[in-house]
Design a protein that fits this description.
The protein has about 400 residues and is of the alpha/beta class. It contains 15 helices and 17 strands. A 9-stranded mixed sheet has the order 9-10-8-7-6-5-4-1-11, with helices on both faces. The longest helix is centred in the N-terminal third of the chain and has 19 residues. The relative contact order is 0.12. The structure holds iron/sulfur cluster (SF4).
Length: about 400
Amino acid sequence: MVGREGGILGLYVHVPFCAAICNYCNFNRGLFDAGLKEQYVAAVIEEIRRAADGAHAPRLGSGDADTIFFGGGTPSLLEPAEIGGIIQACRDSFTVASDAEVTLEANPETATLERLAGFRAAGINRVSFGVQSFRDAELQRLSRLHSAARAEEAFGLARAAGFDNLSLDLMMWLPEQSVADWLASVDVLIALGPEHASLYLLEIYPNAPLKDAMARSRWSVAPDDDAAEMYLEAMTRLEAAGYEQYEISNVARPGRESRHNLKYWTDGEWLGFGPGAHSTRAGARWRNVSAIGDYIEAVRAGGRLVAERRILSRQDALEEALFTRLRLATGVDVGLVESQYGVDIWRQFGNRLQPYVEAGLLVYDGDRLRLTRPGMLLANEVMTVFIDTPVR
Ligand code: SF4
């Protein structure tokens, strides 16, 4: 067995519905349908209850959890009572810490004071809004349903509902977005003052409708150098405003890092529920069936929910631990990796890492290996060093 075992679990619930499908999205989601949603809620509650009986991953039992994360899709399309029912199923099936972080991903257009207060009463204590931009033209190009004003309003409503732990997502390198446009959105975010923010680079996948829209409308994205400036200047401004970068794409006020997402980046363990949800526990990784209908049917029939399951080899587990930990601002604890995987990283990969150190992209101080901020821009390139170099 490899990797960390027996840690405190994170619980992830995938909510696969959206009010409209954004033109750049390749997540596992479908259009909202009230009837299907009801069947889904019943199925996911049943799946959580079965997991505790060991049906999900035989003999693994239930266990302690300290995070619940509703991701999507658009989880805020569920009713507060439905979210409450799912949280209750988690609490009935797992020993969920009384101070657990319980996050709901929400889209601004779904926010009303009544709904947000309902989510809070149901047990949500952290809301992560998918804002993406505070500029209307950019939001329209992404076919998002909300406006910049609606996003600001949603943030205020969440505060009014009593949430003191809020996160906002922004996307950079959007079609037709200049460096100044991007920084204008960053400045609005800073002025609002969420506890946490995620800044992602828009990736346009090959079949995305956005790709056609860009060709039709002759939209382009800024040159690579501008994308680098967007990232670096945003981080500088966020730091000046009191945020700490703790991961390539994530900043937080001290102590407000996403506890749930840190499990993904620190070799933690989690169980995922809902269509397409991934789980990792005790050296195994598995994924549920993706299609909503197949998922509901499999739960109803008491059939097999897992579409794919594999035991992580020592090589897989090490590569993944290095990839994910290197994403963190604190980098990789070399001694910890050696004690967990029996591999001296510098002895194993040092020759190939040295050029990145010399180029100022990587720092190795004998204890930790970490990317510099310019190195974070080229993280994928640096990480190729760890792929397919057999572990000795
Ligand atoms: S709201 Fe999010 S999950 Fe839904 S279609 Fe848009 S990008 Fe995809």
